[in-house]
Design brief:
Helices cover 41% and strands 20% of the residues. It is an alpha/beta fold and 298 residues long. The chain folds into 2 domains: 105 residues, Four Helix Bundle (Hemerythrin (Met), subunit A) (Up-down Bundle); 183 residues, Rossmann fold, CATH 3.40.50.10470.
Length: 298
């Protein structure tokens, strides 16, 4: 049976899935993996730090772990959580998150209509769920998605829409920018939302800037579990990826930027489970988010 560490390594090595998919896999791992029962607070902190070190850009994972920490281990170093208690806390978080995902899809879908053209990047499950919901009511969209190098996440996104009624065009990253004037909406997911903008797949900033120049609306679809207090320490990450050397053909390891920031003024609509949100509301709500002290990186 794979160890907790090896399963976590497989999850964190997934470069084609969005933060929703990664967070769901982490939640399943916490429930089914080799987590001791009873679980001492110190052990939980060690496990949580290991997870966050592997997923430093995904606010959803931070939200889950800070929720568990404040729910189960806020009273002191001697605290323990029984296995059933720990699993129930994970499940309670997943139920709330699932309701938020369903609500955000409804809100965003109500703003899209038959025949519209949508441009996107990467492999956001939030955006995919939105487009599938629109397709389920038999509205047909034109969807343009970039390949999203260096990870190629856009290819996976295009495949996920194969059974939908939408016409999906997969484009090289530069080609999407060149054809952006054809889009009615540019729609992005987000790996994290801050008071002054969002973090998402590299390439999002160029897309947002082009949308502004062309007068196209830019939507960001992000449930409130992705809203990240500064104390969490969510950050864009340089990640080691194997690449082929120019000579010899042997794999080499290089550091590449996978995430970048899009400033709030470039975002036309920030859509959460509550509907369209101003970034000022994000700033107010961040003060209410759980912050588990041992996971704060100063």
């Amino acid at each position: 049976m794979p160890s907790f560490e090896s399963e976590l390594g497989s999850i964190s090595a997934d470069r084609r899935s969005g933060s929703r998919t990664i967070a769901a896999a982490i939640a399943r791992l916490l429930v089914t993996g080799a987590v001791p029962s009873p679980l001492p607070r110190a052990k939980f902190v060690a496990i949580a730090r290991l997870i966050l070190a592997r997923t430093p850009a995904f606010a959803l994972v931070f939200d889950l772990l800070h929720h568990l920490g404040t729910s189960l281990f806020a009273k002191g170093d001697s605290q323990e959580a029984e296995g059933a208690q720990f699993r129930a806390a994970v499940e309670a978080w997943r139920v709330g998150w699932s309701a938020a995902q369903e609500a955000i899809t409804r809100h965003a879908a109500s703003r899209l209509g038959d025949g519209m053209t949508v441009a996107t990047i990467s492999n956001s499950k939030a955006v995919c769920d939105l487009l599938l919901a629109v397709g389920a009511r038999q509205d047909r969209l034109q969807v343009m998605v970039s390949e999203s190098e260096p990870g190629g996440e856009g290819v996976a996104f295009a495949h996920s829409l194969e059974q939908s009624p939408h016409h999906v065009t997969l484009l090289a990253d530069g080609a999407l920018l060149a054809r952006l004037e054809q889009a009615d909406r540019v729609i992005l997911g987000a790996d994290a939302v801050f008071t002054d903008g969002v973090a998402n797949k590299v390439g999002s900033l160029a897309l947002a800037q082009a949308a502004r120049r062309l007068g196209r609306e830019l939507w960001v679809i992000a449930e409130s579990q992705k809203w990240a207090p500064k104390a969490w320490g969510v950050k864009t990450a340089r990640v080691e990826m194997p690449v082929a050397q120019k000579t010899g053909g042997k794999p080499a390891s290089t550091s590449v930027l996978l995430f970048e920031s899009v400033a709030a003024p470039l975002v036309t609509l920030l859509v959460s489970e509550h509907g369209s949100e101003p970034f000022a509301r994000v700033a107010q709500e961040l003060d209410k988010k759980p912050v588990f002290g041992p996971l704060v990186v100063l």
